[in-house]
Each structure stands twice: as C-alpha cells, then as structure tokens.
Fold:
Amino acid sequence: MGSGRGTAMMTSSSFFRDRLIPIGTILLAIIIAWYIAAYRMNAPFQIDQNERSNVTVTQSEFLAQTMSQPKPTMPAPHQVATTLWKDTFGVKLTSNRSLVYHAGVTLSSTLLGFLMGTVLGILIAVGIVHVPALDKSFLPWIIASQTIPMLAVAPMIIVILAAVNVTGILPKALISTYLSFFPVAVGMVKGLRSPEVMHLDLMRIYHASKWQTFWKLRAPSSVPFFFTSIKVAVAASLVGAIVGELPTGAVAGIGSKLLAGSYYSQTIDVFAALIAGSVVAILLVVLVDIMGRFVNARMGGKPV
Amino acid sequence: MPTGRGGRLDVNSPVIQARSLSLTFATNDGPVHALSNINLDINEGEFVSLIGPSGCGKTTLLRVIADLEQPTGGSLSVNGMTPDEARQKRAYGYVFQQAALFPWRTIAANVGLPLEVMGLGSAEVARRVSENITLVNLAGFEKKYPWQLSGGMQQRASIARALSVEPAMLLMDEPFGALDEIVRDHLNVQLLKLWAKTKKTIVFVTHSIPEAVYLSTKIVVMSPRPGKIHEIINCDLGAERPLEIRETPEFLLIAQQVRDGLRAGHSYDD
Structure:
C-alpha cells in the first residue's frame, strides 16, 4: 500500500490501512498466543498418554499430537476453525449439529428480548424525564437491578415461569430484556435531557406543549444516544439469551451447545459455539451501527 | 416620551411597561440582585437597545419580558397583558446569540418550526416560510441543513424563524455578538431595512456602543450590582441610516453620551 497523497489513493487504501492491518495484527497475535497455549496446555496429557502406550515420538510429531487431540484441554485454532466450518456449512440447517440452527434459536429470543428491553428502557426514560417523582425514586432501583448476578437469577426466572406455564422462547427473552433495558434507559434519560437550554427556551416562547417539545425536540435530540445505547443493549441481549439457555437444559441454542460441550468435554465444540456466538454479536452490533449511520444521514447530520 | 423618527412614531401607547421591576436570584452565596427597580416604557415600533457591561441584567431583563424568567417584584405588562399571557398569544420572536437552529431540520423546516407548533395548515406554513426566508435573503437555501451555512446565514435563518410567527415584538439577545465585524455591519444594515419594512417593536441587547447607536431609537444604559437602568438616551438619527452615518458628529455625540453613561454607571468599580 502506497502512502498516496491523492484523495483517491487515500480512500482506496484507507479501509486496508485503517481497519484491516490493525485488526489483522491483533488477530495474528491472538492466534500465535493461542497456538502456544494449546501446545503448553495439551502437552502434559500427551506426555502421559505416550508414556502409557510406550511410544517415543520426535519433537515435531509430538507437536502435531498436541494439536490433534479429540478432546484437548485447549483446542488449537485450526481444530476450532474446522469444526466451525463443518458445523456451519457442512451440515443441513435443520441438523442438531448445525451452528446456524442453534444461532438462529438464540437469535430469536435475543431479538424478542432486545425489542422488549428497548421499549421498556424508552418508557422508563420518558417517565424519569417527565415525572419528577420517578426521577427521584426510579434510578437507584434500576442500578440496583443490574448488580444482581444474572447467572444466579436466570435459573430461578426460568423455573418460576415454568411453574406458571410460561415456557419456550419467552423466559429466555425476558432475561435478555432484563439485561438490555438498562443501557437503553440510562442512555435515553441522558438523550432526552440533551437539548440545549436555548432550544428548550425557544419551545417555551413558541408556547409548545410538553408533547410537542417531546416529539419536536427531545426525541430527535436523543437519537444519537439511542443508537449508542442499543448497540450495548443488543450485545447484552445475546448474553442474556445464552445465559437463559444454560440452566434450562435447553435442547437448542448456543447456550445448550456450550452446556452439552462442557458435559462431554467436547472442548472443540464449546470453542466453536463460543465463536459462533461472537460472530452473531458482531453482526448485530454492525447492523445497529449501519442503522445509526443511515438515520444520521436521513436527519441531515454531517457524514461521519 | 415617544421618540419620533421620520414621522412614524407619534402617540403610541407603550407596548412594554415595567414599573419598579426587580428580580433577585437566591444562590448559595446569598441573594443576587439581577434587576433592581427597573422602570421602562417601550412604545410600539421603537427600536430599543439595552446596553451595559456583563452582569448588568440586560439579558435578564429581556428574558423577563419574554417570560423566560419570573420577576420577584414590581410589575411588567406587555400589550396590557402579563408576559405569560403575551407569550401564550405568541407575541414574541426571540433571537439568541447563537442561531440555535435544530440541526436535524432543514432551513425551511427550522423557519417553519414555530408555525408547526402553532398548528397552522401546511399551505400557510409554506407561505410564511418562503416569505420570511426571502425577507432575510436566504432564498435558495431552503433545503440546506444548518451546518452547511455560514454563521451569518444561520443567524439570518434564526431571525426568519422568529419573524415567521408574525410576533408583535422581536427580542434579540446579542444576536450578532458571535459574528465578525464585517458580517455584523452587513446584518445591522439588513436589520434596519427589516425593521423599516415590518414595523416591529425591537428590543435589542448588545455591548457594542456603535451598534446600539446605529440601530436604536432609544438606548437604555444599564449598570451592574444591582442591575439597574442608569440612563435612557434618545437616539434620533432619522430613518435613513447608511453605515457612513457612524462618522457624523451627531452619531459620535450620542456614542459619547452612551460611553459617559456606561462609565458613570461603572465608576464605583474602579
């Protein structure tokens, strides 16, 4: 890549230079560290194994052995990649092995929970901004709600809801809601309070109603805060959905893959599922980001 | 006394009448007397400047007139109503030092904002928007967003927005204070033309002596701690005011009077 002075050169190479190289460098470092860790962590078992079966191997053969155990302590990156590829593209979408199928199950409760959490968060923020009593009483409770360890509460929620015959997607979605309403509520309180004093004074001079001030000033002012909040919220929703799948003995979803994998020491499967979950999270965050940029452009904002 | 200019002003009753008006803010460091014993009449069609050093209460006085602050003593009537009633009747157009346009609205949508709030029909909104955008010479920029315009153009858009309400009076709080000298001169000329055309009552806050003398029919010199009116100076320079008028002896005399007033009001500070 040339350090071109021309604008055209700059734009053509900027994605490569500004994104791919820094991100790629970190990725490379992670993979190298990962390989070293895999070797170090799998070596004791392999030594033990080789002593028992009385085989002597060369250094390079030993290295290969640590990288190809069926149930390694730490699977090597290429093992995870192979499984990830096979379980994503190599099997039918309806198959129980398909990561796409499991990701889809998790995604559906993620999105439902995210949607409910966003609506709840906005309603709470609107309440806090407009009702002084709520402003004083609500926020401490909302913050307290997030200090409860979700991993401990999730099974209770699932069990209690099952007792009243609420099963399926909804209990998982509710855990997502619980995690995602918080960033939305906090961000939107800030966003709805972001209009400048001058703008609020103007609305007063125009004798605007509270409703008009909300729709014409507060809501549009809060849009950038909204997208920042839901970016956090959508990732939290995914975590919520996965956590929600753990205690249920759920048959499908990224969470159930993780659980089943750890039961049977299928570490490769566990890592593959983890990465599948991360990919879903990244896709969701990128999608929200694109939506944010689109809305910003529609609202006449300066291109960022 | 109504101050005549070109025979336009004669027996007008005051539109703004302040009697022993005062406003005290309670702060942690004790009360701050922002306004004390303000007595002022502003007649219809007058161009009144409030001038004084920082902290003299000129902006506060403007905000009290606009019902953005509540006085703690005395009385204030606007067209025979309380400021609150006048505000509800949309008697005010208000222009801040910053243009304060909504960044997500185009220039046309910004100018139309108060009209939407008033609930006017879209045909009427469109008519008034285009009329006022033309009035401030921004025709052709209707579809631009504020960040695409210069500071002076943004401020003109905010004046168009204030005028679109067709208010009885225009309240301007250092509207050109953030602009450079050349743009400021240009907008001063335009503002005078606008005033001649619309015959609005204008109350104008400034710290610039030449600006006050150039624009006004009446200059209210204020002094700080407590904020009060030090002197009211009539400024009868006639209706025709080319920029060169600022070099004439009459102009300089009034400017000197204002400067003396400001110095006298401030003397205890030295």
